[in-house]
Design goal:
The complex is a heterodimer of chains A (about 400) and B (about 140). Chain A has helices spanning about 20-25, 40-60, 75-90, 105-115, 135-140, 165-170, 245-280, 310-315, 340-345, 350, 365-385, 385-395, and strands at about 5-10, 70, 95-100, 120-125, 145-150, 175-180, 200-205, 215-220, 290, 300-305, 320-325, 325, 355-360. By secondary structure, chain A is α/β, with parallel strands linked by helices. In chain A, the strands form three sheets. A seven-stranded mixed sheet of chain A has the order 2-8-7-6-5-3-4, sandwiched between helices. A four-stranded antiparallel sheet of chain A has the order 9-10-13-12. In chain A, strand 3, helix 4 and strand 4 (about 120-125) form a beta-alpha-beta unit. Chain A is globular and about 75 Å long. Chain B has helices at about 5-10, 65-80, 85, 90-100, 105-125, and strands at about 25-35, 40-45, 55-60. A three-stranded antiparallel sheet of chain B has the order 1-2-3. The longest helix of chain B is centred in the C-terminal third of the chain and has 21 residues, at about 105-125. The chains are: A alpha/beta (about 400), B alpha+beta (about 140). Chains A and B meet through helix 8, helix 10 and helix 12 of A and strand 1, strand 2, strand 3, helix 2 and helix 5 of B.
């Protein structure tokens, strides 16, 4: 079979929608267009029934009760609702939140906002492998702490935090535990009961569902968690998130969850094998380093630094044919290299030299072979024109060089 | 971000990649930028002692496509110029030639710095005062 270009290996950014999901959604744009809140006629009943069914599909994937599923516009909104909603709801108990430096911006920037409102936020550092230190977490707890917000799996390096240990600590101190599980749900088994999660955010478009729909799981028992609504209106979603339900999106998300539940085990095994093959092949290049803990990690993610070549320059060698992300500064508007990689203690030079691979449901072995070949060729070519590579080969200590910073 | 055709061409077919013998008195070397900033350029010129004309120029660059293209273009422009003519190369000439977008202007600045650093290295090796940067 001929290889079709370009190849998509940026599944942490977004995933293509599974055709089965689209098929499930289509009737809800046209024939079954009703408002799920219209209680008095069949159009509304049909929509409500579809939403209820999707809520069950979603709940089943994460071992929750359907009533604990709050539909949102995506993970960013769910992160905002969880953090701001708890900050407001539990104001009489305290104002301190503990999170960590490698969280997604949707969590970090919301925490910054909460600080402006008078909240106290502790940003835990991570260790070299990207995991938080549980002792540091426990030490950060005060009598004002109301929430621990630590992500499940990291979007840049794929590292999976010790969720059960974190929730145990939270429970011991009677503090709520929220996790942004956008990259984890549908990829690895996530069980809100066994994992001891009180609130959890995730999104449809990272799991082969549609964009514009996400979930905040909010626990109803042991403890019963409440968040203050951040959007006022008709009191939808048990009063926590007003706004007419995105019925087609919710139907799609439900279907996406069902497919993940049924296929996840096989899919994770297939992807981790492909990912390991990619990684092993690329590590044959001298001076290439895998970033983050390789034992506690999502099965479809790899982040590799190719020392002495710059990430954007590297991607230019194949970005017509292969879609990837880089931790390099030049790809972002900020000109700062990835804050996640820097948090691992990586020097800026290694952060600039990194590529993130996000494999997915439609990734094939042929695509990976093509990618390995293209990257090996480009790295080799760019090193031949890299002054740093030449100096490294001559034994020059690059850290001892006085660089002209600009 | 889309690259201009000229940037892509220099990236795919860089001109004058290589290393000149920096121990030679008539070779000037400029090494500018820093690894943690994401770009380092090394630009070298070889000056014909009798004519004062730059007879050869080589570069090696660690950086994005625009940085590679800027230094590749610079080596092309340097060859055949006198040192004084080379000193007059302005980063905005590079920006114009390569159609660099605003976020990539720093690549052209770096190339201009590298040219000036190489010339001054050549001058100091030959007992001449370094030339002031006209900024």
């Amino acid at each position: 079979m001929e290889l079709k270009l370009p190849i998509y290996l940026d599944n942490n950014a977004t995933t293509p929608m599974d055709p089965r999901v689209l098929e499930a959604m289509l009737p809800y744009f046209t024939d079954k267009f009703g408002n799920a809140a219209s209680r008095n006629h069949p159009f509304g009943w049909v929509a409500e029934e579809a939403v209820d069914y999707a809520r069950e599909q979603v709940a089943k994937l994460i071992n929750a009760d359907p009533k604990e599923i709050i539909f949102t516009s995506g993970a960013t909104e769910a992160d905002n609702l969880a953090l701001k909603g708890v900050f407001e709801m539990y104001a009489s108990k305290g104002n301190h939140i503990i999170t960590c430096v490698t969280e997604h911006k949707a969590v970090l920037d919301t925490c910054k906002h909460i600080e402006k409102l008078g909240g106290q936020v502790t940003y835990l550092p991570v260790q070299e492998d990207g995991l938080i230190d549980l002792n540091e977490l426990e030490k950060a707890i005060t009598d004002k702490t109301i929430l621990i917000a630590i992500m499940y799996g990291n979007n840049e390096i794929g590292v999976v935090q010790p969720i059960r240990e974190i929730s145990t600590i939270a429970k011991k101190h009677n503090i709520l535990f929220f996790t942004d599980a956008t990259q984890a749900v549908g990829k690895i088994p996530v069980d809100v009961l066994a994992d001891g999660i009180d609130m959890m955010a995730f999104s449809g478009h990272k799991m082969y569902g549609p964009k514009g729909v996400g979930v905040l799981y909010v626990r109803r028992k042991n403890p019963r968690v409440k968040v203050t609504a951040q959007m006022d209106g008709g009191g939808h979603e048990r009063g926590m998130r007003s706004g007419t339900l995105n019925v087609p999106g919710i139907v799609g998300l439900g279907k996406a969850c069902e497919i993940c539940r049924l296929e996840m085990a096989d899919e994770a095994a297939r992807l981790s094998q492909l990912r390991d093959y990619l990684e092993t092949s690329l590590k044959e290049l001298e001076e290439s380093y895998v970033n983050g803990n390789v034992n506690s990690r999502l099965p479809h993610v790899s982040n590799i630094s190719f020392k002495y070549v710059e990430g954007e320059g590297l991607m230019m060698g194949f970005n017509k044919d292969i879609a990837l992300s880089s931790g390099s500064a030049c790809t972002s508007a900020s000109l700062e290299p990835s804050y996640v990689l820097k948090a691992l203690g990586l020097g800026d030079d290694l952060a600039h030299s990194s590529l993130r691979f996000g494999l997915g449901r439609f990734t094939t072995k042929d695509q990976i072979d093509y990618t390995i070949n293209a990257i090996k060729n480009t790295v080799t070519k760019l090193r031949e024109m890299s002054p740093l590579w030449e100096m490294f080969k001559e034994g020059v200590d690059l850290d001892a060089v006085e660089w002209s910073h600009h | 971000m889309a690259y201009s055709e000229k940037v892509i061409d220099h990236y795919q077919h860089p001109k004058n990649v290589g290393t000149l013998d920096k121990s030679k008195k008539n070779v000037g070397t400029g090494l500018v930028g820093a690894p943690e900033c994401g770009d380092v350029m090394r630009l070298q010129i070889e000056v014909d002692d009798t004519t004062g004309i730059i007879s050869d120029a080589k570069f090696k660059t660690f950086g994005c496509g625009s940085a590679i293209a800027s230094s590749s273009l610079a080596t092309e422009w340097l060859k055949g110029k006198t040192v004084d003519q080379a000193m007059a190369i302005d980063n905005m000439d590079i920006v114009e030639e390569l159609n660099l977008p605003p976020v990539k202007i720093h690549c052209s600045v770096l190339a201009e710095d590298a040219i000036k650093a190489a010339i001054n290295d050549y001058r100091s090796k030959n007992g001449l005062e370094p030339l002031e940067e006209k900024k």
